[in-house]
Design goal:
Chain B: Pfam families: CbiQ (PF02361). The complex is a heterodimer. By secondary structure, chain A is α/β, with parallel strands linked by helices. Chain A has a single domain (5-244), classed as P-loop containing nucleotide triphosphate hydrolases (Rossmann fold). Helices cover 36% and strands 24% of the residues of chain A. Helix content of chain B is 68%, strand content 4%. Chain B has nine helices and two strands; from the N terminus they run αααααββαααα. In chain B, strands 1-2 form a two-stranded antiparallel sheet. In chain B, a hairpin with a 2-residue loop joins strand 1 and strand 2. The two termini of chain B are 28 Å apart. The chains are: A alpha/beta, B mainly alpha. Chains A and B meet through helix 2, strand 6, helix 3 and helix 4 of A and helix 8 and helix 9 of B.
Chain lengths: 250, 222
């Protein structure tokens, strides 16, 4: 089976010489939910920006459902890989929620009734259909995060990539977003520092540290491997014990 | 969140001026301002006529003057300059209220003040009767280059975000015993404005990335 995300030997250095990735291998298959863990500066965001061709591989390759990420395929790659960025204010920049959600599919040439259907469908899936005509910056932070997810869902991506989806959310919004993410029938790659969230949502975890993948196992195994955790600056919140929760079925 | 999308300038209403198409209003304002600017400096009768036309438009729009006048403070720096002109200009002197001032300077200053005031009030009337989104669509209909309209759209969208960021920075400064209003702390204020510029610039880059990720190719879909 062709993996949805197929990253091989990916290396990348920024123009200032700082090398962020040293040969990353990662395969994600259809329907998987994978957490991408790692300390600050591990190269997680750099990796994410390669998945939809914002950054071009220095060495190695990235393919999305068999389609290589390269200049000629960028439009299709960006349809297949939906990236939700950390700050919803970066993602929502138009006058109304509806316009913002329509932005992606309209760029793909979707028009008219089909565009409207996609917009409302995406908003429905994140429970924000009643807010279609509101300006995004009048919404609460949690609502904006959900609309940001909808802006990407409207492109009907094959894989949803979320950068720190639970950051800055209050516990209720955090749980609501988890419910939404669980309800989506889509492959998911989630960059996060929120380890309980990773355990709750993603059966599999990949640990990136200093630009290489150092672990790729079940999230439960990663979180209970104390040597691995402390070697890569990963820490569980105080009082949180994965052993009392158990592992999600893979 | 504070008021958004220029609600601070927009006055909700249903007058004929509110309903008029935005591109006609823009053309109207532009034409009117060209006439005002072209009016000879001492044609006071024409100034009065222009002011009456403008006040008529304001009356039609049913936007109360008490709403518009406080917003005219934006003119203050220009007004200060206009008031200075009679004192710093050369030429024959004349006496006003016991103060000797330059006569050509007095004429120039007065004309500047009058034209400026009419311009600011006319622009505020346009802003009060037109939603920023409609204004942008109007400009688009007038074939304003797409890139300019996009830039203005982003300004409208991110004005609140940047002001809120600035407000948070000032609060953080105050919390550490700095008073941005005291000249002694102006260097700090200047540095924080620099930081704000960098942050906004970086946000611009992040927004652009997020747009590219959703297939943006240089044109906003209509």
């Amino acid at each position: 089976m062709i993996p949805v995300l197929d990253v091989r030997g990916l290396a990348f250095a920024y123009p200032d010489g700082h090398q962020a990735l040293f040969g990353v291998d990662l395969h994600v298959h259809r329907g998987e939910r994978v957490a991408l863990l790692g300390p600050n500066g591990a190269g997680k965001t750099t990796l994410v920006l390669h998945l939809n061709g914002i950054l071009a591989a220095g060495r190695g390759s990235v393919a999305v459902s068999g389609l290589p990420v390269e200049r000629a395929n960028l439009q299709e790659v960006r349809r297949r890989v939906g990236v939700v960025f950390q700050d919803p204010d970066d993602q929502l920049f138009l006058g109304t929620v509806r316009q913002d959600v329509a932005f992606g599919p309209a760029n793909l040439g979707v028009r008219g009734a089909e565009l409207e259907r996609r917009v409302m469908d995406a908003l429905d899936r994140v429970g924000m259909a009643d807010f279609a005509d509101r300006p995004p910056h009048h919404l609460s932070f949690g609502q904006r995060r959900r609309v940001a997810v909808a802006t990407v869902l409207a492109m009907e991506p094959e894989v949803l990539v979320l950068d720190e989806p639970s950051s800055n959310l209050d516990p209720a919004s955090r749980r609501e977003l988890a419910d939404i993410l669980r309800s989506l029938d889509v492959t998911l790659l989630m960059v996060t520092h929120d380890l309980p969230y990773a355990l709750e949502l993603c059966p599999r975890a990949v640990v990136l540290s200093e630009g290489v993948v150092v672990a790729d196992r079940s999230t439960y195994d990663v979180l209970t491997d104390e040597a691995l955790m402390s070697a890569h600056r990963l820490e569980l919140p105080w009082g949180f014990d994965p052993r009392r929760i158990g592992s999600l079925p893979r | 969140m504070g008021a958004g999308h220029g609600h601070r300038l927009h006055f909700h209403g249903h007058s004929p001026l509110h309903r008029a198409p935005a591109h006609l209003k823009v053309l109207g304002l532009l034409g009117f301002m060209l006439v005002v600017v072209a009016t000879p400096r001492q044609a006071y009768g024409v100034f009065v006529a222009e002011a009456l036309v403008l006040l008529g438009a304001v009356a039609v729009s049913r936007v109360p003057l008490t709403y518009l006048l406080p917003r005219m403070v934006v003119e203050v720096p220009f007004a200060l300059f206009a008031v200075l002109v009679p004192f710093i200009s050369h030429g024959p002197r004349t006496e006003v209220l016991g103060v000797t001032v330059s006569e050509p300077g007095l004429v120039a200053g007065t004309a500047l003040l009058v034209k400026g005031t009419i311009g600011v009030l006319a622009s505020l009337t346009l802003a009060a009767t037109t939603e920023p989104q409609d204004l942008l669509r109007g400009l688009q209909r007038l074939r304003t280059p797409d890139l300019l309209v996009q830039i203005m759209g982003f300004m409208v969208r991110y004005l609140d975000v940047v002001t809120a960021e600035m407000a948070r920075m000032t609060v953080a400064m105050r919390s550490r015993g700095c008073d941005p209003r005291s000249p002694r702390h102006w260097p700090v204020l200047a540095r924080s404005l620099g930081a704000l510029f960098i942050r906004s610039y970086e946000r611009g880059e992040r927004v652009h990335l997020a747009m590219l990720s959703r297939g943006y190719d240089g044109r906003l879909p209509r």
